[in-house]
Write a sequence for this structure.
């Protein structure tokens, strides 16, 4: 049995629980979530979430009560800006993270994936692509060949990317967006259904077909 603590408890965490159920059912692994940890959770301590028998353990500080050499974490937070903050706090306490990858995912043996990845059904990672830490990809997303993807990148369902594209750190890509062979700067947000056909500067919002660039007053994703 591999015991894990779920970092995050929102809608994306619920999707990750479904992913874990599929892994256990289809591969014979036994990944067992023992609780949820999230900011401001102390008032919910002991509460069972998402119609499961998995309790809230508390906020990030409660990790000090667990043997983090034996119990790994799952970074089940969808938004990169929140995921990075929580992961960095957990790592200061010695936390280690496990990858949660659905059995239907296709990953080239010539691709490289970092720590803490979460990939949902039918994600496809092609040859020569290098992915950083804490990458998350929802159903039917695909990465083309020879791409470079930074840390804390999140892809919503059915994102398509062309080979050779470069995606920076902390990038959020909306549902059904298409990214051609261009560079996406750190912290950028790609809107739903956007067609990216030129470089996107750091911390810009790109949306539309073709995508136009807009300044963001606040990085929420």
């Amino acid at each position: 049995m591999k015991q894990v603590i779920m970092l995050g408890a929102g809608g994306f965490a619920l999707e990750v629980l479904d992913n874990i159920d599929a892994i256990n059912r289809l591969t014979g692994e036994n990944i067992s979530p023992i609780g949820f940890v999230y900011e401001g959770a102390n008032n919910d301590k002991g509460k069972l979430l998402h119609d499961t028998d998995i309790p809230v353990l508390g906020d990030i500080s409660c990790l000090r009560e667990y043997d983090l050499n034996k119990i790994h974490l799952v970074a089940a937070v969808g938004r990169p800006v929140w995921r990075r903050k929580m992961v960095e706090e957990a790592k200061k306490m010695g936390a280690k993270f496990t990858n949660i990858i659905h059995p239907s995912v296709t990953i080239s043996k010539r691709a490289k994936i970092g720590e803490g990845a979460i990939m949902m059904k039918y994600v496809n990672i092609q040859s020569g692509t290098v992915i950083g830490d804490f990458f998350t990809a929802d159903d039917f997303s695909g990465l083309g060949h020879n791409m470079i993807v930074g840390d804390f990148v999140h892809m919503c369902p059915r994102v398509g990317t062309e080979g050779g594209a470069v995606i920076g750190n902390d990038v959020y890509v909306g549902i059904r967006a298409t990214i051609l062979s261009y560079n996406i700067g750190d912290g950028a947000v790609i809107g739903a259904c956007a067609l990216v056909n030129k470089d996107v500067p750091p911390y810009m919002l790109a949306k539309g077909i073709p995508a136009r660039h807009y300044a963001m007053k606040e990085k929420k994703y």
